[in-house]
Here is the input.
Amino acid sequence: MEEGPEPQEWVERAAEEHHHGGHNHSQDAAAHSGEMTLSAITAAILAVLAAIGSLLSGHAVNQAILGQTKASDQWSYYQAKSTKEQLYEVGGKLIQALAPAQNSPGESHSASLRQFEEQKIRYEHEKDDIKKEAEHLEAESRHELHKHHQFALGIACFQVGIVLASVSILVRRRAIYYLSLVAGAGGLVWLAMGFLA
Here is the structure.
């Protein structure tokens, strides 16, 4: 039984055919080599842009988390002020309720009642400022999260572009290469929208 050619024979035969293929074959090979190089450079550029987008996306999501944490702290502070305000309000009502039952001068009850009312009003005003700050921090957090989504969509486009550029090398189709450029352009648009958001 006769065996097939050895692997080195296949390599030698392919090299010989390539060498004797003529001028047209070398022009085709040079053109394909140039296309492969262009596709590879495009994939590398898209990879760099994806890395930049990833850094921007990570920063934006970290800022969103930090802003939400600060907002939660402010809401806790707001709740503490609300509790104190309610305590002073209840204390004032107790003084009003107990004043007629006691046969003592009304002056001390009025002073105590005034102090409770002043403290209640003070906490009410402080609470309003804290609420505004908490709402502002929540709005900033939502804004950063929106930026993160824009950057993430840009990264996805760049990754699609990288895959298409790589596939265009393998299948030797210019249309796929052009699609990789379209995906890369889409990624740039999303990154720009993240910056402008």
Notes: Residues 167 and 176 are 7 Å apart (CA to CA). The radius of gyration is 36 Å.
